[in-house]
Amino acid sequence: SPSPHLLEALLSGFLRSKDTIIPFLPESSPQGPCPLTLLPMSPAESSDDSYVSAGEEPLEAPVFEIPLQNVVAAPGSDVLLKCIITANPLPQVSWQKDGSALRSDGRLLIRAEGERHTLLLREARAADAGSYTATATNELGQASCAAVLAVRPGGSTSPFSSPITSDEEYLSPPEEFPEPGETWPHTPTMKLSPSQNRRSSDTGSKAPPTFKVSLMDQSVREGQDVTMSIRVLGEPKPVVSWLRNRQPVRPDQRRFAEEAEGGLCRLRILAAERADAGFYTCKAVNEYGARQCEARLEVRGECLTLSMNPRPPAL
């Protein structure tokens, strides 16, 4: 086995540059310097709290994963404004109409169910038209999103489509919104279509994304293929996106995403390069919530193996 003095000498010869560590070996060694690739990081990413291992939720300012949508409603119809907000820690969310604060009262019901935030307006009137804003705030930052409600004859009288999927099931307001003990003054105007007239407990609807298999840290050599795999469930089916260092992964001939049955999703990287190293995030979003997991990819440069076996003394 190598002596402690030899190991100390080897370690002390490492010289750090921006993206690599280069060891300078003793002159008697037959091997030359061998670059080992490390993750290139910006100053913001190199802080102690910039990396979160798989399964942990990173701290983040509020983000509207699904924003509010503009609505055109007929007089007397019910209007539902909804959005999905991700943040850690959970944010405080407030609503305003044309700059004036709103709260649940009479025809207006504001609800927060985890990351899903909704505003239900019963029997829309012309005076209800205007700009509605949701503002989310936590200790890391603030985000706002606005939508315009127009009330006029000929507007929609049925639940409007989700920005994510058009085949999801909507529950009528009395099933979805009332608090225990609350009563409604009359029969609701929003109904499920005949093909959707099933309770959520029977269909498995209203399920936010859940990761059954999360990302794992990986370390590969340059030129190796990389496969990052997750399994996520939810109803409606979550929309999955991939990010590297918090920026969307742009598909090309080497990098592409795949989906299979059972919620299996993969990000494949062919012939990994040093520039592919970084922190990868898989984000899953549906109408009822958003989840993400994160892992680190290290791409090592080609390197000769140092033999630590002692040499026989020269005769």
From TrEMBL:
GO terms for molecular function: ATP binding. Keywords: ATP-binding, Immunoglobulin domain, Nucleotide-binding, Repeat. It holds the Pfam family I-set. The keyword S-adenosyl-L-methionine does not apply. It comes from the Eukaryota. The keyword ATP-binding applies. Residues 156-165, 190-204 have a biased composition (Polar residues). Residues 62-150, 209-298 form the Ig-like domain. SUPFAM superfamilies: Immunoglobulin (SSF48726). Residues 156-211 are annotated as: Disordered. Belongs to the protein kinase superfamily. CAMK Ser/Thr protein kinase family. This is SPEG complex locus. The lineage of its organism: Eukaryota, Metazoa, Chordata, Craniata, Vertebrata.
